[in-house]
Specification:
This protein has 4 helices and 8 strands. The chain has a 4-stranded antiparallel beta sheet with strand order 2-1-7-8, with helices on one face. The longest helix has 13 residues.
Length: 203
Amino acid sequence: MGTVTIGVSIAVPEPYGSFLQERRAGFGDPAAHGIPTHVTLLPPTEVDAVALPGIERHLAEVAAGWGSFTMRLSGTDTFRPLSPVVFVKIVQGAEECTALQERVRAASGPCARELQFPYHPHVTVAHGISEEAMDRAYAELKEYEATWTSSGFALYEQGADGVWRLEREYPFGLAGGQGQGPVFPRQATRREPVRDEPLNVTE
């Protein structure tokens, strides 16, 4: 059956997801419309297609044991010069994202893997474009704010055209979560072909 490339992430819901995606496109990032706006939990990982049922069971078990929590974005930062990335900062919910991705990548599970860089949850708004364009992204979104309740995560698969597509959503199942922000609808997946860009922790 071959292999597939998967990623796991928390979607940034509407209206924020589409707004940040369009801003990313406006800064000149050609990958913008092939990557739903997100916070990575598992970066691009190549797996055997036959392993997918076990991966889906694992993700369902992780989600079932997790409760909702508040996500708040505020301002911008960058990974430059280590990596050519400008991102919107997560100022609330980062600890939960960090703990959740550890569960997803648990050494005993089917998604076990090492990371290229230490995990740092964020929302990418520019990657691999000109320095001037990244400076513009940093400046124009420095006052950006968004808050919502995160109520689950999702599994994505990258197509041959480089586009990441939603495969399955995993709602949190633990009652009594701590989320206090509003709940918004999921961002629709776009279909345009783009260059091969990952859902990465330093994208």
